[in-house]
């Protein structure tokens, strides 16, 4: 996400400048184009910054609680093993770990 925000920073800063240049030059087509670009790039940049702030907040909370980083590929067996070692509010039942290959108590 930080790469997306970095990539949107230059267009988000350049679009308003080009919009003003188009308006000063009395070129309505260019001014309208860069007005739309200004709205899109600046809005995308602001959404990206908001997402980055959320990621940083989540990282701090995970670190404070001792939770692992979320990974893209975690099997139900790995998740079940982690939740068994770190008990919490998640019940260790088949409904919560449907793809687990190991039997549950009572099966």
Structural class by secondary-structure content: mainly alpha
Mean pLDDT equals 88
Q: Count of helical segments? A: 3
Q: How many β strands by DSSP?
A: 0
Name the shape in a single word.
rod-shaped
The biggest beta sheet reads:
none
> In angstroms, what is the radius of gyration?
24 Å
Question: Helices and strands in order, then pairings?
Answer:
Blueprint: H1 2-24, H2 28-65, H3 76-85
Helix pairs in contact: 1-2
Q: What's this model, at a glance?
A:
The protein is mainly α and 107 residues long. 66% of the residues lie in helices and 0% in strands. It contains three helices and no strands.
Describe the structure.
This protein is an all-alpha fold and 107 residues long. It contains three helices and no strands. It has helices at 2-24, 28-65, 76-85. It is rod-shaped. It starts with a helix and ends in a 22-residue tail after the last helix.
């Amino acid at each position: 996400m930080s790469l997306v925000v970095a990539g949107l920073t230059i267009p988000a800063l350049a679009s308003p400048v080009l919009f003003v240049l188009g308006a000063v030059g009395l070129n309505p087509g260019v001014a309208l184009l860069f007005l739309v670009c200004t709205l899109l790039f600046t809005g995308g940049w602001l959404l990206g910054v908001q997402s980055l702030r959320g990621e940083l907040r989540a990282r701090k909370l995970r670190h404070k609680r001792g939770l692992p980083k979320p990974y893209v590929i975690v099997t139900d067996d790995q998740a079940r093993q982690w939740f068994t070692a770190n008990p919490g509010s998640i019940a260790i039942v088949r409904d919560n770990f449907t793809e687990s290959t190991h039997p549950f108590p009572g099966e």
